[in-house]
Amino acid sequence: MLLKLQHTVSKGYSQVKLPNNFAFSPPSRMSQSKGTVVLAYSGGLDTSCILVWLIEKGYEIIAFLANIGQEEDFTEAKKKALTLGAKKVFIEDLRKEFVEEFIWPSVQANAIYEDRYMLGTAIARPCIARRQVQIAIQEGAEFVSHGATGKGNDQIRFELTCYAFQPSIQIIAPWRMPEFYNRFIGRTDLMQYAKEHDIPIPVTPKNPWSMDANLMHISYESGILENPKNHGPPDLFQMTTDPSKSPNQSDVLEIEFKKGVPIKVTNLNDKTTISSSLELFEYLNKIAEKHGVGRIDIVENRFIGMKSRGIYETPGGTILHHAHMDIETFTMDREVRKIKQGLSITFSTQIYNGFWFSPEGEFTRHCIMKSQENVEGKVQLSVFKGHVYILGRESPKSLYNEELVSMNKQGDYDPSDASGFIKINSLRLKEYNRQSKMNPK
Amino acid sequence: MLLKLQHTVSKGYSQVKLPNNFAFSPPSRMSQSKGTVVLAYSGGLDTSCILVWLIEKGYEIIAFLANIGQEEDFTEAKKKALTLGAKKVFIEDLRKEFVEEFIWPSVQANAIYEDRYMLGTAIARPCIARRQVQIAIQEGAEFVSHGATGKGNDQIRFELTCYAFQPSIQIIAPWRMPEFYNRFIGRTDLMQYAKEHDIPIPVTPKNPWSMDANLMHISYESGILENPKNHGPPDLFQMTTDPSKSPNQSDVLEIEFKKGVPIKVTNLNDKTTISSSLELFEYLNKIAEKHGVGRIDIVENRFIGMKSRGIYETPGGTILHHAHMDIETFTMDREVRKIKQGLSITFSTQIYNGFWFSPEGEFTRHCIMKSQENVEGKVQLSVFKGHVYILGRESPKSLYNEELVSMNKQGDYDPSDASGFIKINSLRLKEYNRQSKMNPK
Amino acid sequence: MLLKLQHTVSKGYSQVKLPNNFAFSPPSRMSQSKGTVVLAYSGGLDTSCILVWLIEKGYEIIAFLANIGQEEDFTEAKKKALTLGAKKVFIEDLRKEFVEEFIWPSVQANAIYEDRYMLGTAIARPCIARRQVQIAIQEGAEFVSHGATGKGNDQIRFELTCYAFQPSIQIIAPWRMPEFYNRFIGRTDLMQYAKEHDIPIPVTPKNPWSMDANLMHISYESGILENPKNHGPPDLFQMTTDPSKSPNQSDVLEIEFKKGVPIKVTNLNDKTTISSSLELFEYLNKIAEKHGVGRIDIVENRFIGMKSRGIYETPGGTILHHAHMDIETFTMDREVRKIKQGLSITFSTQIYNGFWFSPEGEFTRHCIMKSQENVEGKVQLSVFKGHVYILGRESPKSLYNEELVSMNKQGDYDPSDASGFIKINSLRLKEYNRQSKMNPK
Amino acid sequence: MLLKLQHTVSKGYSQVKLPNNFAFSPPSRMSQSKGTVVLAYSGGLDTSCILVWLIEKGYEIIAFLANIGQEEDFTEAKKKALTLGAKKVFIEDLRKEFVEEFIWPSVQANAIYEDRYMLGTAIARPCIARRQVQIAIQEGAEFVSHGATGKGNDQIRFELTCYAFQPSIQIIAPWRMPEFYNRFIGRTDLMQYAKEHDIPIPVTPKNPWSMDANLMHISYESGILENPKNHGPPDLFQMTTDPSKSPNQSDVLEIEFKKGVPIKVTNLNDKTTISSSLELFEYLNKIAEKHGVGRIDIVENRFIGMKSRGIYETPGGTILHHAHMDIETFTMDREVRKIKQGLSITFSTQIYNGFWFSPEGEFTRHCIMKSQENVEGKVQLSVFKGHVYILGRESPKSLYNEELVSMNKQGDYDPSDASGFIKINSLRLKEYNRQSKMNPK
């Protein structure tokens, strides 16, 4: 049942390669059906209500739930979706492709939105939506649907990905439909609807904020956090230990990179060594969680033009960010780095705005990838009480030349060259001085 | 004696306004003098030897020692310079102008070189050199001199500033003169020379690295740090407590900004309040020192094209960087921020390379200053174990609209607008998909 | 009747200063009126039909027709609007403010969209819309309306300007309303409607393309031009002579700039001299028209994501572009120029996309204006057969130093400095060579 | 004799592949020889004097003269060099590689320095110098030499290329050596020296300006042109007809591109068709020459920081620039184009400053090349009286969608989407307005 598509992204994201035994099946539907909807299903109250509501509206539902590392009882969720009326349920483990195709390129790029946000939610959306629209293609569904709100970024990231792969897809976004949002004004309305439609109601009371979790990060926003002055409550964080309660002993890691991607982590304290992508990232998460690394509280600018406040924890990603930045500067030429820095900012905005799968996203990733060819070597760092400290680095491909830079050796360097260099660089300044004196303001 | 120039930087840095009672005195010199040199004097072994060596070579020396917050016995240094033969000594407290004219603009800019270095040395050089060349103009000296090495950035920052203010100035850089550097190959040669010329020899043994300190930061480099793999030794840091030994209780501060500049700091723990510039910055240094904030270990790209390894501590500056970034994003329009982010990177490179006083430096600062008009409000943050945590913020000029962004209120926002927004944004992606399908790769 | 608002743009575009004798009059309307609409009226078939249609729908209409230099019988247009039922008509001569507040800043910026388009339509829209929304405010109208299509840029430029000045304004864009565009599918439907409602029908047959004209340029698009392979027909151009029929004798002009703005034009052939802004620009238009200067045929990328084909003529603007570029490079420091070049590209996109009045537009213009402080001097150029040839330039503020650059004089320049400069610049290249040889690909 | 190296640039410029029959021969020299110099020889007075002067100084000379399309009697030049004492002479036809490896990438990049200069000299230097340093490696010469002046850009472009390929190379730049430039202060000194050393003296009097010619362009500078106000004399131009004397009948061309490179030119007037690279470029030169296309007169900023005045003619390159720009915008996604526009500016500065062969040059070229994958199709244009007029274009890979953009068809486009798009885009503007009103300036 769980047909796995082979998608060969590198050959252009518009090409979805279908498995050999794939036969396009026209959407079988009852005469009265409005068509089939692949719904991004989370198992929670919102998307459960949406599932039932869509059936009520005459659609057939395929529920799709991606495992991108969030805590979830997937078996239970599948059962629930089927119980609620889904004609099919796809539960897919996308964790490995999330790490390799989305987190790694972001690490290579040093992707950071507005100097602070590590884009943990933003890179998960195209990963999920790509698979969802592939299922729609494969299952002959004309519709996809999701439970994202009408004010956020995720609706955009989700839908642009769908359009990029399947321009003819039709999207049902209930939270943007007056018929839906006027009916479900608050959580009470959803609870009421759930009760009326035998939708299981969450037993634990909802936190006064919302949360989005995946392998890379958890975001917290809305509710009491909407007042940007309010401090995040101490019990907010799920993914990292409070630094004030974290161990008094650091972990010292050595991370090895090749082409800008981490290929091996060694814990120098206990000699743990990990080198497969998903496990490696999970291990960094574990270490960072232990030491309370990766918490930020920011106000950011959404694509739709609002400012919003978010609290994020990105444990493993934060360690990697520091380590990659270090090995990159160590091995990359200064001027290439400058250009790449500009591309990274551009890329980060693309990701944030939902253009991972776009001509410009594809182009920028290609250029960044090219810049990483020599980004290779080992970084040693210490993780302690919420912070990452770089300790040292080495590389077979470094452009660092210890003899050249040494204060004690002259090396192949003639200090008098610097005199000429400085004098030539001063020419413009002297001319400006001359001109300013002739034209005092 | 200590004639204080009024320099009116805002009117163009090429104009040095002399005090009313100023009379230009032609350099009085003995017939055999080669002229007068204003020497940037530190009181240490190197510049003491240079002082004596220059006299030996036939120059008259005015020693200049700027107080920019480094630990130093200035009275002692003055006495020493006079003893060694300087005909005049200027000791000047530049700390307030260093904070207001150099640190504040850097904070406004979020100035960071290569994503990590906060430019603590780089912004001190133009502050010192401007005063030095002003003294040269005032005293009728044709020469300035300094003890910077021939491989570093400081020689450039120093000299470009001098040329910018006084194009005709002549610069003596002994460490670039074969006559000098071939004579003084190692520290032993300097010690020997000192012994022969009654130059007091430092009693404490030299660390196996070099150090540069000012109000904003200390840098450590060369010596054993030249091997980029070597970890910085635990006793390296002078300006911050080891985070593992710092208090188990955070300090919570509220920093208030106006036009992007901090105007008030309140410690919410003990209600300490400070609002004058120099004291405010010193207080932040104190808090950051206490909690071990601001240490980094990086490899960077020098202007002359070498990679070098530096360890830096920037305690107060690190707190301000986080706080300013937060209030800026809170109050600045998204698109203005994007442009300003680009200008900041440009400005940081200008500073690093020594072009603080240059047409482009002046222009960039002006633009950045303009961007700060509404950067106003209060940021609350916690300082703990080497890290700064933003907790919340408020501003009378924020562009944040709590009602607009709220998940629970619709506000003046129609979610269906987002549908059109997304569809229009998908047009390019659909066309690209169409074109790609017609031209499979 | 023709109440002229004093708008003080420099103080922030959100402030509309009303004349002293201004009294806010609440919109008088009949009980059944849906409210008052200020309609951007052109006098043509489309907006005449819209005017009548809006009345039919229950609105009261204030027609607004801006004179921005297009050929038009404004008296006739006013009469027509009143006849069709407008309760008021504003005909306003915005030519001078169009030149001074919109064309001049574009000249200062060297504003060019996608390397070719001089933005003649794009800068006219905010000029017109600002006045229109001011009238709406003044007249107490809740609505504004326009005849721009739903696929173009102008709807965006128009409406963003309105929202920027009056966020609560409501916009009626008939060509985006199914009720309207489904009724008026082709020109025939409009003609039919006009006939039925006594709307005068144009006597001259419509060209198989559309046109937009103002003081700065005429654009031609759609119709037969939609096929990007089709050549523009020879009789297309209204604003410039066919270069093959233009005079065989050039005009030689001297244009004088101050702060990047042309302040005087002298025709060196006949000594004509003009120095007031509007007349100066009209004169350049005249000269350029005579010599067929300023025609381009391009495909461009619209803000909504489509590519479209446009043919443009920008006669006087093209001359100014060449002249300004020349005097700017002559007087502006190289590094300032680089930064400004980036700002110009950013600004051009802002203008194109309709963000003239926006935080970022305001900021960018401020920065560009700052860069123009020393852009002063005279450029001599020849206009001939469709082309502009720069001949020479002079300036009291140039950074050009004839002695310094001379091949025959050494000036204050030591050629051996260049050796050091080159060697230092080669350091990175040598390290890269070393690293490449150690790691052959 | 004319040993042709196979250089495989694509594999990294640091690798010079030597021919199979190559045997490294240690520089044979007489005991008193200081070593062998590969001299970039032009056949003119300057480099002839340098050749003899270097021999006088004790060097052995290998003269190297590259044919990059300049007018020259190469056989005569070879004879002359041998007569003057060169021990070997290399005359090499680099025209094809100049077109394919240097001009084509510049066309792909739309490379333009400071918005105007097409870099005709700048791209020739690395082409020549690469071959020169390859000869030095092959012939075991420790030195290279050239006749470029000490104030210009060419010395830098030349030498950086040499260092990039052979870091240990030693460069003799006589015009930067006091011994040389103090001896040869003016042309008279060179003439005198030539007379004394039997160096043939040019019979034609030297123009009062200097000139540099190659296949792509001729530059004119210095002498009477150093006064930036002086008009270029009518008899200056060698490569293009005076537009006032050019034909009254245009040539209409169709240029076909593939991956951003012209692969075929058809003259639609006479059906001439050309498709091999060198011939194609020469043909465009011929057509442009005939119609006087490609003349500019500019002031530019040299890398060393001076402003200089240059007059350039770039006939064929100008046609290609217009044509490529057109097909590129037609086929390239808007956002990719924006990024590529930034890269082009960066690349142009790299080229101008002599960093064609550098890590950043290699990287930027790679990215630009990637952007050209779909830049394919045909452009029709008219060449007439100094100007190039684009007439139309077509492409199998265009992102232009005639149906989508049509004013008369709705296509797959819902105009009401634009309403949402505009409203969402206005959100920021409304917030800014709100904030401005609350905080009037």
UniProtKB/TrEMBL annotation, chains A, B, C, D:
Protein name in UniProt: Argininosuccinate synthase
UniProt enzyme class: ligase
Gene: ASS1
Membrane-spanning segments: none
Cytoplasm listed as a keyword: no
Quaternary structure note: Homotetramer.
Residue ranges constituting the Arginosuccinate synthase-like N-terminal domain according to the UniProt record: 37-200
Listed SUPFAM superfamilies: Adenine nucleotide alpha hydrolases-like, Argininosuccinate synthetase, C-terminal domain
Biological processes, Gene Ontology terms: argininosuccinate metabolic process; L-arginine biosynthetic process; urea cycle
UniProt keyword annotation of ATP-binding present: yes
HAMAP family: Arg_succ_synth_type1 (MF_00005)
Example of a GO MF term: ATP binding
Catalyzed reactions per annotation: L-citrulline + L-aspartate + ATP = 2-(N(omega)-L-arginino)succinate + AMP + diphosphate + H(+)
Highest taxon listed in the record's lineage: Eukaryota
Listed GO CC annotations: cytoplasm
Keywords assigned: Amino-acid biosynthesis, Arginine biosynthesis, ATP-binding, Ligase, Nucleotide-binding, Urea cycle
NCBIfam families for the chain: argG (TIGR00032), PRK00509.1 (NF001770)
EC number: 6.3.4.5
Pathway: Nitrogen metabolism; urea cycle; (N(omega)-L-arginino)succinate from L-aspartate and L-citrulline: step 1/1; Amino-acid biosynthesis; L-arginine biosynthesis; L-arginine from L-ornithine and carbamoyl phosphate: step 2/3
